[in-house]
Design a protein that fits this description.
- The complex is a heterodimer of chains A (325) and B (490).
- Chain A has 325 residues and is an alpha/beta fold.
- Chain A is 43% helix and 12% strand.
- Chain A has twelve helices and nine strands.
- Chain A has helices at residues 4-27, 45-49, 73-82, 100-103, 107-112, 142-156, 162-165, 167-183, 228-242, 256-261, 264-280, 309-324; strands spanning 28-31, 34-37, 58-63, 88-92, 117-122, 246-251, 285-287, 298-300, 303-304.
- In chain A, helix 3 links the parallel strand 3 (58-63) and strand 4 (88-92).
- In chain B, 69% of the residues lie in helices and 2% in strands.
- Chain B is built from 19 helices and two strands.
- Chain B is globular and about 65 Å long.
- The interface between A and B is large, with 42 and 43 residues.
């Protein structure tokens, strides 16, 4: 008769194996004995930042969360070319659910590629996230050992370990793709040049009309001095500035049903963050928050549909102003 | 160290494996103690000194209480011991709350009081290990137990890692004898007993731990998103949305807390130690008092034994009984947190208990009426009781006064609007499905009795399949942001 320990470990092993197989199968293909990401346009941050960029090209990076992904790098590049700025290459480095404290981890890599301009899109959501409060530890903290070990494993791993860190996200993606497949919609990613970190599907192009539902889920935005993301954003700004890389901020746009339902206290807190950003950094902060509220260009309350050009147009103008300075 | 973390998994495997390998009982107990302190240190760092202080304090005073023959002196020493314990708890947990209230009152009376708040961290688990310790000194005072034979024995009781940070609250009279070597059914020896990991205990322990993780990681952590999206700003929302979120919070806190308790009980069982159950299907309670016999049982029995009974319980006059109930639940609410919303929650439950007692006293025939023994009668009792229980969850969850009052108003006075609620449900399909899964599973467990025991008695093939069916949803639907167990904050 099988022992309990053996049965338990076997069930655990089988479950982990099924889980890893499904996740990896969803994300990767095996070609010539190598693991290749299914979306050929998506590469890991490590791969992107370590690739050989053309030394002649002047790179402009647009960074932020999914709320900046609708900015079309090709459109912006063409706009600049039409104004006789032909030697610029635009990259949209949007990362889903990105927040400044996470983005801070990749700033050194971004700096190493020597861009000439950074456009950082910020939203209210960026400043609501609060990592768990950490008390000041007077004695050695063993937790640091595990975090360091995990980060080192992430660095050397060729597999995107974030898939396993946030399994629900991956599971939901699988379910959505499955539902799309059953409905006859394609879940394949759509080619979107120079947007390496986000999978763009046909869904993202759809302009949805019924935005008249209440956005719930506004949490709170801590004050700038207690706000870890604001502090991280300031650090990001300082790092770029001290490396002679110009950084410009813009507030990402929102649908009017989002901005109107925003609680007043929450709005005041967000305004305070922006005021402090203007004061403390030497960078411009362009405000697009209310600009397209009434327009029919929305995929959801905070995401502009990919094919609408007005957003890309305004960003292109901002870039032009700043490279002309 | 959260239970639902890789570090804890590694920690647990190392501790259990080492305990199984070490046969010498003295080293086994030292290992449990060291592991418990490491577990606490990992989360609380230098605040471990408070745990050690409480342990030394009560061990020392416990011995003096036991050796003292004079009753008045015994009482005095107990009072000193309690002042030490409760003083520590009061300072760290309630000092800033007290200062805030003094400032508020002072300003209301035009004194322009502005006492600065203290910059102190709330030590994790202080509410729990303080209460553990009190059961020891009071148990000695009441001659219910003999003192711990060694400091190690007592320290393990206070710091036992499975239940240290969020209960169940152990009572010395129940736990200390388990640590002692058994000579026969009635006597225990002078040493601590050997820890033996048996297959039977391993099976039931793993079953409980799996169910605990399932409740916490699959149900509670997923449902929390729905709850947070409503109660972060409920003003303007429809009644049915508020009710749905209230129900979801009830499910969240139950799965979170009972999940934790299951994990704690399961780990203890693997080590051959019994921790009392903390939940017994409270959402099928038929009255407020029945609810408190099923919800956070270790706290409610602690409050009964160390507060309600010393206040006179139901032995004095009827008005005094009702007052005792109110006082106990007021303090029970206050124990949960230094905030008016927890006090309100406690007072609401105090009112429920008192009113239920008044009705039972005034109309005793209702308690034995045959209608309430029928299926329909039971269902009605459950629905009415749970309506009020879930109403009380609103102040527990929503600390902002305006939001709380709005939510309560919408819960009680329905607006019968559904348009926004339908959209809300559509945008939370998966979480709603998880709630439905919970309702079904909970009903099954209500009908089947002791479900973990039932499952652990299954044939090994079916038990193997059960484990896979539990582990897979946890892995696939784990949100990734380890939500703290709700009761960690208390």
């Amino acid at each position: 008769m099988l022992g309990i320990k053996f049965v338990f470990f076997l069930s655990f092993l089988i479950s982990i194996s099924i889980f890893c197989t499904v996740i990896l199968f969803y994300q990767y293909d095996v070609k010539d004995g190598n693991l290749i990401s299914r979306s050929k346009d998506m590469i890991t941050p490590q791969e992107f930042y370590s690739k050989n960029f053309n030394t002649e090209e002047k790179k402009i990076f647009i960074i932020g969360s999914s709320q900046v992904v609708a900015i079309n790098p090709t459109y912006v590049k063409n706009y600049l070319s039409s104004h006789h700025y032909d030697d610029y290459e635009i990259y949209n480095l949007a990362v889903i659910s990105d927040v400044p404290i996470n983005r801070l981890n990749s700033i050194d890599k971004i700096i190493s590629t020597q861009p000439v301009l950074i456009l950082y899109g910020v939203s209210d959501r960026d400043f609501t996230f609060m990592p768990k409060s950490i008390q000041d530890n007077l004695l050695p903290d063993p937790h640091v050992f595990f975090v360091t070990l995990l980060n080192e494993i992430k660095q050397i791993s060729s597999i995107d370990l974030e898939l396993f860190e946030f399994p629900q996200r991956t599971t939901l993606s699988i379910m959505i793709d499955l539902m799309n497949f059953l409905k006859g919609h394609s879940s394949d990613s759509v080619f979107y040049e120079n947007t390496p970190f986000m999978k763009i599907t046909e869904d993202a192009f759809i302009v949805k009309h019924d935005m008249n539902y209440r956005k719930s889920g506004f949490t709170s935005i801590p004050n700038p001095e207690d706000n870890v993301n604001f502090i991280a954003l300031e650090e990001i700004s300082q790092k770029f500035t001290s490396n002679n890389i110009k950084i410009v901020f813009f507030v990402t746009p929102a649908n009017k049903f989002y901005s109107e339902f925003m609680p007043s206290e929450y709005k005041l807190s967000f305004d305070l963050i922006l005021d402090n950003l203007r004061k403390n950094s030497s960078s411009e902060v362009y405000d697009l928050f209310y600009k397209y509220g009434d327009l029919n260009i929305w995929n959801d309350l905070t995401h502009v549909a990919i094919n609408s050009t007005i957003y890309s147009d305004d960003i292109a103008k901002i870039i032009l102003v700043n490279i002309e300075k | 160290m959260l239970f639902n973390s890789i570090e804890f998994l590694i920690f647990l495997i190392v501790v259990v494996t080492t305990l199984a390998a070490i046969k010498h009982r003295k080293f086994q107990h030292i290992l449990i103690l060291v592991a418990s302190y490491f577990f606490f240190y990992y989360t609380s760092n230098y605040l471990i000194v408070l745990l050690i202080f409480t342990t030394i304090w009560d061990y020392y005073f416990g011995n003096i209480i036991y050796k003292t023959k004079d009753h008045k002196t015994k009482k005095l020493i107990l009072v000193i011991s309690l002042i030490g314990n409760l003083g520590l708890l009061g300072f760290f947990k309630y000092a800033n709350f007290t200062i805030t209230q003094i400032n508020f009152l002072g300003n209301q009376l035009n004194f322009a009081t502005h006492i600065p708040l203290l910059d102190i961290a709330l030590p994790i688990a202080i509410s729990f290990y303080t209460f553990h310790s009190i059961t020891y000194t009071v148990g000695l005072y009441r001659n219910q137990i003999t003192p711990a034979r060694s400091f190690t024995e007592y320290a393990i009781f206070v710091a036992f890692f499975p239940q240290l940070v969020a209960g169940p609250i152990l009572k010395a009279k129940e736990f200390l004898p388990q640590l002692r070597e058994k000579i026969d059914s009635f006597k225990s020896g002078i040493g601590l007993r050997q820890i033996i990991i048996t297959e039977a205990n391993l099976k039931i322990g793993i079953t409980l731990i799996s169910l605990g993780f399932f409740k916490k990681m699959f149900i509670a952590d997923n449902v929390s998103g729905l709850v947070n999206s409503v109660f972060s700003n409920p003003i303007g929302l429809e009644s049915f949305t508020i009710i749905l979120a209230t129900f979801a919070f009830g499910v969240q806190i139950y799965c979170d807390f009972s999940g934790y308790s299951d994990i704690a009980i399961g780990i203890a069982l693997i080590l051959g130690l019994k921790i009392p159950i903390n939940f017994n299907k409270p959402y099928f309670a038929t009255s407020p008092s029945d609810f408190w016999r099923k919800w956070h049982i270790s706290l409610s029995t602690w409050l009964r034994d160390y507060l309600y009974i010393p206040l006179g319980g139901n032995k004095k006059s009827k008005p005094r009984t009702y007052l005792n109930l109110l006082i106990v639940m007021f303090l029970g609410g206050f124990w949960h947190g230094a905030s008016w919303n927890f006090i309100l929650w406690g007072v609401m439950h105090g009112l429920y208990l008192s009113i239920h007692k008044i009705i039972s006293d005034k109309f005793p025939f209702l308690t034995v009426h045959p209608f309430f023994k029928t299926k329909i009668g039971k269902i009605m009792s459950i629905i009415i009781t749970q309506y009020f229980i879930f109403l009380a969850w609103i102040p527990f969850r929503v600390s902002d006064t305006e939001s709380m009052l709005y939510s309560i108003q919408k819960y009680i006075f329905l607006d019968f609007q559904i348009l926004d609620t339908v959209v809300f449900i559509q945008s939370h399909k998966i979480r709603i499905m998880i709630l439905i899964v919970f309702v079904l599973l909970h009903f099954i467990s209500y009908r089947k009795g002791n479900l973990p025991l039932l499952i652990s008695n299954w044939n090994i093939k079916y038990w193997f399949l059960f484990l896979i069916c539990i582990i897979l949803p946890i892995l696939f639907f784990y949100p990734g942001n380890s939500e703290d167990f709700i009761y960690f904050q208390f």
